Amino acid sequence: MQLFVSGEAQIMVATTVIEVGVNVPNASVMVIENAERFGLSQLHQLRGRVGRGAEQSYCILVTNYKLTEDTRKRLEIMVRTNDGFEIAEADLKLRGPGDLEGTQQSGIAFDLKIADIARDAQLLQYVRSIAEDIVEHDPGAQRPENEILWKQLKSLRKTNVNWAAIS
Domain named Helicase C-terminal: which ranges (predicted)? Predict the structure, then answer.
């Protein structure tokens, strides 16, 4: 790696460890073999290793010829955009949010009763602003008009979460 960073070597073959801590501005081409095996975030991180200098850069995704529909969608997203926020949103829609209070990194581990975190983002933002307003104006849950809301929230939160146990 040091030979590549110093410019003595023009080609480097590496594992995915390359995604961390390498900054070679003149690196302009990356070939990712078996790209279908990687998730969107890892592909985006790997692709970020090239194109840091003034030269045109390329990230070539080499895949198996038999791709699942999900894999095809993932790779199409990588081809379509370099925007990390767009990639993260697409990943959320494809894989689900995971367990916000635990260790599951994909899927729907918690059960939202009314909304879908990916599909209903605008609605959830709107409802959050309403909730913030209620908490700001009734922090002690004393207003009669909010009584049923506070009772419902307490019933939804049946267990305490030990955030210190989540790493």
Answer: 1-93
